[in-house]
Here is the input.
Amino acid sequence: MDSPEYPGFATRAIHAGAPSTRPGGAQGDVVSPIHLSSTFRLDEVPDVSLMDLDPSHGEYLYSRLGNPTRQVLEERIASLTGGTHGFAFGSGTGAVLTTVLASAQAGDAIVAFDDLYGGSLKLLDQLAEERLEMDVNLVDARDESKVAAAIDDDTALVLMETPTNPLLHLCDISAIADLTEQHGVPLAVDNTFSSPYFQQPLDLGADIVIHSTTKYLNGHSDGLGGAIATNDDDLAEQIGFLQRVGLGNPMAPFDAYMVLRGMKTLAARMDIHQRNAMGIAEYLHGHEGVRRVRYPGHESHPQYDLASEQMGGFGGVLSFELDGDASHARRFLEALEVFSLGVSLGGVESLIELPASMTHESIDEEVRIDRGITETLIRVSVGIEEFDDLIRDLERGFAAAFGE
Ligand SMILES: *Cc1c(COP(=O)(O)O)cnc(C)c1O
Here is the structure.
């Protein structure tokens, strides 16, 4: 039975897919229990194919094929993203790979944003292109005419991400969805940076939405995971086959529990992430030690109008360029006490990193600098700590960098 329709996002984040909403699951738990069992006892020999057992009706056989805890998470993901089908994976990377394989095969072409998450670019290059004989065409999707020019009869998937890391570039989901619809090609959007709270790609016309739940959905930096949602029954069938059989990469029950727990506070957390990020963007913008700030919620962002139109809020990630050299950046980062020097994002704690040395070092230096990932570009995942403590910490960094 489907979950009742809850109107509000924050309400769905807490209740959608909960066991108490289903007949037979009503022991009164207000928290979805963790079902660790790998196999399930049947009352009788089933007369349907095992693949036809329906977890949404409480029919379980074997946990890779369906697990009650994962099922609640998958229903909640679907509810929060506006999809009719949800899937949870062992990592965000597993969700991206599943999306690629659900849409494309050898000889097909994929059009993708050249500013995708680094791991997704490597997957497209070293797996899809080099081993699976797909043709990967990377474009600067800030300009949708470049996406239009890249799509042809061989295109089997358009893979986008917005905003991107670490430059916070945006692409226009609705405009690109119009293009993909004309060509009958599925559009997948990696929505990790916004979370479903601030951006709804399926509503904007995308066919598949991807999240690394490792980031905002789980929100506490204590579990890897990925999710896909879609409204397309054919794509859902392919994705479900890959998750359960072809790749066998579903999320484990304990991790599903952690994401369910984290998602309950998604709305509350995202509001604070955004408030803190907005304040920090403003503070950095006026700082003499800063050359440039990149935050979609700041008027100085070249795509601020698109961000305001497409997103319900701007999230907690920003980047800025110190007005100095690599040694200033190093002194700045190493002096911080509240911000942790580390990769990843989307947790309650503030994280800070130097993309040129920590996440994007494998890109050819000339290309990297040309794209804007300079030796002083600093990427921040603003957490939900007290705002004044974050500003004091940044002041500590500036003092260490420039000897104020
Ligand atoms: C982290 C991330 C991924 C990969 O997710 P994992 O859970 O680390 O595999 C994919 N896309 C984006 C935008 C990410 O930030």
